[in-house]
Amino acid sequence: MDTPDTEAPAVPPSRDAEPGTxxxxxREQRFWRTHLEVGKLLxxxxxxxxxxxxxxxxxxEILVVLSESPDHRMRMTDLATATxxxxxxxxxxxxxxxxxxxxxxxxxxxxxxxxYAHLTEHGWDTLRKVAPDHVxxxxxxxxxxxxxxxxxxxxxxxxxxxxxxxGLRGRG
Amino acid sequence: MDTPDTEAPAVPPSRDAEPGTxxxxxREQRFWRTHLEVGKLLxxxxxxxxxxxxxxxxxxEILVVLSESPDHRMRMTDLATATxxxxxxxxxxxxxxxxxxxxxxxxxxxxxxxxYAHLTEHGWDTLRKVAPDHVxxxxxxxxxxxxxxxxxxxxxxxxxxxxxxxGLRGRG
Lengths: 172, 172
Prior knowledge:
The structure is a homodimer of 172-residue chains.
Chain A: H1 26-51, H2 57-67, E1 73-75, H3 76-82, H4 87-99, E2 103-108, E3 111-119, H5 121-141, H6 148-170
Antiparallel strand pairs in A: 1-3, 2-3
């Protein structure tokens, strides 16, 4: 092998260093690296496919979240929370998406709690056009490669972890 | 619930739209969203923990990859491949890491194929110092929350998917 594994954040620089550390054993490490690699490569592949429609994967996510919100709009601060982005990073992204005509930033009359992002007609049409391809990619590269039993086992394993992590995020 | 799910890229804007599309069913969608959410929240949590050491998660990854390379160095193009980044983005990151004294960019004498990134002494010391905390986080938030059976089942499910996606990337 000429190149190392894609990513390896939990690997000790030396097993002798820091003797009290609960280093991952070979089996755990193999699993952890594979988990990271799948996340990263899947993101990369789905991003590449969305790019053919002129969308970044974060754009797509925002279109979906807004499309599922009442009146196709959401307060910017809530949108930042929902998409796990910093407010400043979201702000830059919304500016780009506004330029592309996908969303619109507006004050909400009678609500002083700040700006809303609205999905535009063009944003909605774009989502409807792109979603079928995207869902085919999600199936082809991931979901359809799991048996029913594997899918259920993964969900059972991951759901409590998601809950744990949501709790940590809430504590900010 | 006041806020929507964190992320939902495979959700159809309308089940009636595009009738030929193989939309995810409720079970698949629940799994897919949970998978995305765990990836994102875990990245967020581990990033936050690394930030207390002044490192971004991408910095940590680069330190690990270089530490596992012969002579603690790697050609920039190979490093971009290994970390799945564009060359220009990696270049910016290496510039920041050079400023922090973690890596050094150097020509390789007798090798015209371009620049290398080297791990510095300070980069190596930083990795040795940070890795124990990071591995504890990986255990606490993820690995130790899976039973042995779950860990093996996840690995068995994910390994062929990683291989599929690696193949696609190679054709990139």
